[in-house]
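FW: tagging you since you asked about this chain on Friday. Here's the raw sequence from the shared folder, copied in full. Didn't touch anything.
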Amino acid sequence: MNIKYLRIMLLVVVLTALYGSTSVHAGTSMPKIFGDNMVLQRDIPVPVWGTAIKGEEIKVSFNGQVKVAVAGQDGKWMVKLDAMEANTKGEELVVNASNTITFKNVVVGEVWLCSGQSNMTFPLSDSLTGNEVIKNSDEDNIRIFNVKTLLSTVAADDVTPANTWAKASPNTIRSFSAVGYFFAKRLQKELNVTVGLIGSNWGGTRIEPWTPPAGFRNIPELKAISDKVDGWLPSTPQGKLNYSKAFDNIEKWLPEARSAFAVGNRIPEMPSLPGPLANNSSEPTAIYNGMIHGLIPYAIRGAIWYQGEANVNDGVSYLYKMQALIHGWRSVWSQGDFPFYFVQIANYGPCQENPNAYPGWANLREGQRRALEIENTGMAVVIDIGNPKDIHPKNKIDVGERLALWALAKTYRKSDIVFSGPIYKTHKIEGNKVIISFDNVGKGLMVGLKKDIDPTLEVKDGKLGRFSISDKNKKWFWADASIVGDTVVVSSDKVTEPMNVRYAYQDSPDGANLYNKNGLPASPFTTEILK
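HL: got it, structure written out here
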């Protein structure tokens, strides 16, 4: 390696870190999220953007609209198509400048981002009934785009596709997210519009790397992460200081490297610039930089999210990281408080028989339940369809369907849909009893039995399981629980002065069986104030 090459590589690294790209735009180009067969979001303005020669006029034509932009000093341009109604007949989207780019078979419908870790990545081919579904998946009204897994030390202007936009078919849908597919299938059936899915997920990943810098700010509990991330950004005071020190180290390194090269010695390692480690998928912002930032500001209806297993040791404090992710994505997308529906992690691991245990999975589920306080969110409860011996339950049909119920009721205003099972609302203590009230009781509460993908059955005269109650010394005991109207009354002959109640508060709460009569399970909960 010669010293001239080293200096060139150093310049490329520095400029890339500061500006994202060093290329000169030779003509009009478009981000890879745009392509043949893509779906554009209906009912809201649709950004279309790219790069071109500085000062060049760009004309975008679609659906009877013509929008014009001029490339700025940095070569970037953007137009916004006016809000459009859904259509199913594919049209051409044409971008005219010094060169012409034509995207074929473009439709207007509903676009959702599907993200998270391995249970979102879990492919349709491995799910229950998946192969049968794949055989009959040749349909034009579900379309998919998949982002390749990629870490980046800086916010990339584009994503790398694993698969570009394609119509659902046995060849394209096999390896796509089963949760995403079943979610889209239910939406398409109810809405009768084309549904586009953008898959950006990565197995085994934590929530922090998916979160943009803006998300960590204004969350006091995450100040340490926020400070760390701000130290990586050349736009912040701390970042400027860190980059200045890094440049000083690089300037010191150059003559040392030159001297070592001149005498044939091993060249010392070049000092690094501030930023997340390029080989560490747990670093805050590292996956956002490579797999989300380049999608923005593509118009979407909302996002579905299935993650948490990798953060199980965070317990209830996972709430703060959910706040950072959701507020962060909404901030950078600049599309308002778009819907964000997530999956509460399923049952996995042991069923603790000691009611005084504080199992990690239960604590994290509590953090997820409390994330419902964030505006325009919803939670699919799947405590009844997991597998204690498999962190990847194969029943993804109910997961996708339950997410879709939230979207249909809350986003698409289908008033006749019960979208959730019972979720703890309040409690009151009367003597030695605690009376629990719930939201989302639907047609009423019941003892239920769920098996595989079959509908939930009511167990007549069944007994509620997995309730526990604490005394004034915060000691927990298994409790008797009974349905009284739309409430559950909890007590124990060992507790005369009860304080709190838990339900299904184990890693795998075998016997948890509270449902509403619409067949949807109650969320695990505790009435304690945990931090």
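FW: The radius of gyration is 26 Å.
HL: agreed, and Confidence is low (pLDDT under 50) at residues 1-25.
FW: great, closing this out.
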